[in-house]
Structure formats: structure tokens, C-alpha cells
Please model this.
Amino acid sequence: MSDEQKKKIFPKTFLTGCDEKTEWQLPLFLKHFRKHKHETKLVIADFGMSTRMARTMEASEEVQAIMHMSADVPEKGWFYKPMSMFHCPAIQTVWIDTDCIIHENIDDIFDKLKANKLNMVEDRPWTQRRRETWYNSGVVGIIHKPDILKKWVAAVRTSQTVGDQEVLHSILNPITQMTHINPLPNEYNVLRLQTESDGYKGKIKVMHWTGEKGNEQLRSMMND
Model:
């Protein structure tokens, strides 16, 4: 991000990010984002993308900034998601994982955000499997920088847990979940397992192709 961009605060932005290992998902992500003509543009967090991909993204009309993150913890690439949300130069930010496919315009998600909370969709497959409420970190909305985001950033930095979603869950309990998380409608983050195993028949605005099976589906889409 240039010095000029660092000084600019956007009213709203979608945010995504990747490194060189997962940047192959970015062109497909951007293709579907572009298709639905969003008024809100993208900030892309560079977790270690190739120079070629970073330049390609900088040239995209939909991208309003590239945010270069420090590569000081390469063994924890998932650390950068909450950190990039914390540093994103926007009043309202909605993070979306690059393994998500956007099916229609989702500018309206910003109308559903509540301040001082992480705005997330319940991870219904994990809730069912683990018999306690989980929230999926593939789509996360914030207004300003809520205190729970700061705690999440600090916890991820020091945790030995597998991923950012697990770390967030570990610092919350059923009571603090209600305090710090605003549940979003399922349609903004429909998980692959919901459509494959759980018989989900509802509306899909964002389809989240999780796991290696999801990666296979994304590669198939790219080859079509």
C-alpha cells in the first residue's frame, strides 16, 4: 500500500487476502466479484503473493488498494486474516476468504453489520458435529475495530491452535459469543458441507468451497 493509500480511509470495503500458495484462487474470486457489479470495491491483503499476481491485482478496476503484510510469521499464514482486518483502512470492512464464490451482489451485507461485534455466519456443520455453537470465519464483517477483534489478533499471534476460527472459538464461551458476535443470515456464507451432506436448500449469496474437495471444485470451475 502506498503512502497516499495509507492516509485514505474508505467508508466501506470488501477485504480478502492470500499468499503465493493460495493466490491461484484469486482470479476466480475476482471474476465472480466483478460479475455482480459491486459498488463497494476490494482491498487485497498481500500475505506473500507473487510479484506477478500482485501487479495483476493492482491493475484491476475492482481493487482499490493492495495491503502488504509483514512476513514475520510465515509458519502461521492464517494469522494474517484478523491482523489484516485490524489494519484495513476502512470504517466498515467485510472479509471474504478466497475460496468463496460470490453468486450475486452482496453490497447489502453492510446494512446487516452491528458495531462492537464480529458479524459472522454460524458454522452449522461444526455446530452439529461438536454440539456447541461455532461461527465460520470465511466471511467476517466489522465496523471500526471492535475490542473482540483486538483480542482475536493477540490470541492468534500466540496460539498453537490449528486456525483462526479455532482460536476465536477458544477465547469465547456461550455468553461472550452473544456479546461479541452478531449472527448473519446463512446465505452470506453457505459451506460446502451444507450442500453436500446437510441438504441445504436455502438462498446462496456466497458459496464457501472449504477443504481439499472445495479446492477441486474451484479448479474445475477454472477449467470450464
In short: The chain is about 35% helix and 25% strand. The chain has a mean pLDDT of 92. The CA atoms of residues 192 and 211 lie 9 Å apart. Residues 3-185 form a domain with the Spore Coat Polysaccharide Biosynthesis Protein SpsA; Chain A fold (CATH 3.90.550.10).
